[in-house]
Specification:
Structural class: alpha/beta
Number of domains: 1
CATH topology: Rossmann fold
Helix content: 25-40%
Strand order of the largest sheet: 3-2-1-4-5-7-10
Number of strands: 12
Order of helices and strands: EHEHEHEHEEHEEHEHEEHHEHH
CATH class: Alpha Beta
Distance between the termini: 43 Å
CATH architecture: 3-Layer(aba) Sandwich
Largest sheet: 7 strands, parallel
Strand content: 5-15%
Length: about 350
C-alpha cells in the first residue's frame, strides 16, 4: 500500500490497535503523540505485532493546541481521528470538557481539509445517538441525535455529541473534496497490546482483581476493539461510507452477565470475580452520600436502550464477534500481559 494514514492518539487503546491493523494490511502509518518521548511506548506496544519495517512515523501534536497539526497532515491520504482529550471525570468543568472535545476535533478537520485528505473517519460514541435518559427501552439507529440540552446528560456524553455535531457542521461549510465518516462505538473491550494503557478494559481488570464487590444494574453494548478497528477501516475504504454515520455496537449485556462469564469460563483465575448485583437504591444512596462519582452512572441504571448496526452490516459488510468471546479474550489478555494479579 502506498497510502499514508494518520491515526490520532497513537498511545491510546483504540489508536494502538488501529496502527497495528493498518500496518498488518500494508499501509504506511503516521501517528500523533503529545510529546516525542511517548514514541517509545507506541513501539513497545507494537513489539508483538506487525513489524513496522519503516512504515510507521510520528508527529508531535496535541488536540489542545494548534501547533504541529499542519505538519502531521502533510502528505496524508486518510485520517482515523480516534483520539479524545477527555474522559469521564466529574472533577472537570463540563464546559472545559466540551471545548476540549469540540476544539480538538476542529483542529484535526481544519488541517486535514487544508492538506487535501481524501477521507476522515472520526470516532464518536453510541451515546451521541441515544434517546433522553427517561427512555429505557427500544432500538435506535444513526438517524437519532442525542439532545445535548438534556439536563441529565453526563459531561462526557454531551461532549461527544457536540464534538460530532461540530464536525458535521464544519464539513458542510467546506468546499474541499475531503469526506467525513463517523463511527459510533458502544463499550469497547477486547485484548490489550500493552499493560501500560488498558483504556476502557480497566473495568474487567477490576473485576478479575476482586476490586468490585458487586456490579450495578447497568447494561453495555460490548464491541470488540478488533471489530471496532475493522469497521473504521471499512468506513475508510468504502465509497458508500462517505458522509455517513455508522453505529458500531455489540450485543447488549448486563454487567452481571459479564461477571458470570468470567467466573464460569476462567476457572481458578476468575475466583475473585463477584457476581453480586448491587440494588439500584443502594447505588443511588452511595452516589448521594458517599461517592459523588457514582452520580454519573445513576441515569443508566436499568436502561435497555439498544442501537441497530444494520447500516454497518449492510453497507460495509461488518460482522462483529460475540460479546462472550470479547470479554474472555480481554480477560485472558490482561492476565497474559501481567496487567492483573489474581
Amino acid at each position: 500500500m502506498s497510502e499514508l494514514v494518520l491515526v490520532t492518539g497513537g498511545t491510546g487503546y483504540i489508536g494502538g490497535w488501529c496502527i497495528a491493523e493498518l500496518l498488518h494490511r500494508g499501509y504506511h502509518v503516521r501517528t500523533t503523540v503529545r510529546s516525542a518521548d511517548r514514541e517509545k511506548s507506541v513501539l513497545d506496544a507494537l513489539s508483538g505485532e506487525e513489524d513496522p519495517a519503516g512504515r510507521l512515523d510520528f508527529a508531535v501534536a496535541d488536540l489542545t493546541s494548534d501547533a504541529g497539526w499542519d505538519c502531521a497532515l502533510k502528505g496524508v491520504d486518510h485520517v482515523l481521528h480516534v483520539a479524545s482529550p477527555l474522559g469521564v471525570n466529574s472533577g472537570k468543568d463540563p464546559d472545559t470538557m466540551i471545548r476540549a472535545a469540540r476544539d480538538g476535533t476542529l483542529r484535526v478537520l481544519r488541517a486535514a481539509t487544508s492538506a487535501g485528505v481524501k477521507r476522515i473517519v472520526m470516532t464518536s460514541a453510541a451515546n451521541a445517538a441515544s434517546p433522553s435518559s427517561y427512555a429505557s427501552e427500544g432500538i435506535t439507529d444513526e438517524t437519532l441525535w442525542t439532545d445535548p440540552e438534556d439536563p441529565t446528560l453526563i459531561p462526557y456524553r454531551r461532549s461527544k455529541t457536540l464534538a460530532e455535531r461540530a464536525a458535521w457542521d464544519f464539513m458542510a461549510e467546506q468546499a474541499s473534496g475531503t469526506e467525513l465518516t463517523t463511527v459510533l462505538p458502544g463499550a469497547v473491550f477486547g485484548p490489550i497490546l500493552t499493560k501500560d494503557n488498558i483504556g476502557s478494559v480497566g473495568i474487567i481488570a477490576r473485576m478479575l482483581c476482586g476490586k468490585m464487590p458487586g456490579v450495578p444494574r447497568i447494561g453495555l453494548e460490548v464491541v470488540d476493539v478488533r471489530d471496532l478497528v475493522d469497521v473504521h477501516l471499512r468506513a475508510m475504504q468504502s465509497p458508500a461510507a462517505a458522509g455517513q454515520r455508522f453505529l458500531a455496537t455489540g450485543e447488549f449485556m448486563w454487567m452481571r452477565e459479564m461477571t458470570q462469564i468470567l467466573r464460569d469460563d476462567l476457572g481458578n483465575e476468575g475466583r475473585h470475580v463477584s457476581t453480586r448485583q448491587i440494588p439500584d437504591t443502594v447505588v443511588r444512596l452511595l452516589a448521594r452520600f458517599r461517592d459523588p462519582t457514582l452520580r454519573e452512572i445513576t441515569p443508566a441504571l436499568g436502561r435497555r436502550n439498544r442501537h441497530s448496526t444494520e447500516k454497518a452490516r449492510t453497507l460495509l459488510g461488518w460482522q462483529p464477534r460475540s460479546p462472550r468471546e470479547t470479554v474472555l479474550d480481554c480477560a485472558e489478555s490482561l492476565l497474559a500481559h501481567g496487567a492483573v494479579t489474581v
